[in-house]
């Protein structure tokens, strides 16, 4: 992380209170041999200075170290794959992996202090949008951070793990073009999400390279959720010129589109081809099985844990952003255009 506001030290607090560093340390450790008035003053100044006890600069992969994997929304099929990879890597390395859900508004000023107090040695945030003050709080606490599929790209240099989203979007659209489709729509996630933008740009690049225009209303955004797929899929299928193929920015989105098509009596893939993105269990369980872009989610979870441990051990990483390869998996939800 880059430079951030100078972190308050015990000496800073002690000087403000007019007491010794040892006295401040006693208050932090809950010792009883401090006068009530002094304790109250020191506690007030600790809060005023936003003091955060630093995490140890080096940790071993064993000995009870824990890493927190934090999501900002309820668990999904996507989340489950990330969790599986993180837990497997933690078990292999002898590191505890703690799961939590903490939405943006819950990441208050005390957030970093709470993580340190709980004994966390690193934080992995999944599909989160972190603000500059939140990043600064983690930096002051010297708590290593790894992002997986961040919704925003922080201006500060933060270590992140993702996949080749542009290449995946390109491959999905090229597959549909190869089947003779020309009216191809895209239903994605949040418009500002980095991963969504990359998938959408891959889609647009494939369409442009093939000389196929994208009609107005053929690109829709929302969240990578089933219900958004239902709503946006319905909107596309109600257009005067309906698409013959739809690329969903996630498996959940694609399944929502599939339901919207079924509600209108459309046969899949005979009358509408659908492609997803992620290759979660949902893709394999769909009827028909979903053609999708495989995102190596388990590997991403494992790489994030290993990277977080290296940062916690004071090591430097080779790259601040790692992209793992995607792969198109063709199943039964796509067919030649009529």
UniProtKB/TrEMBL annotation:
CDD domains: HTH_LacI (cd01392). Keywords: DNA-binding. Residues 8-62 form the HTH lacI-type domain. It comes from the Bacteria. The keyword Ribosomal protein does not apply. GO terms for molecular function: DNA binding. InterPro entries: HTH_LacI, LacI/GalR-like_sensor. This is LacI family DNA-binding transcriptional regulator. It comes from Nonomuraea guangzhouensis. The lineage of its organism: Bacteria, Bacillati, Actinomycetota, Actinomycetes, Streptosporangiales.
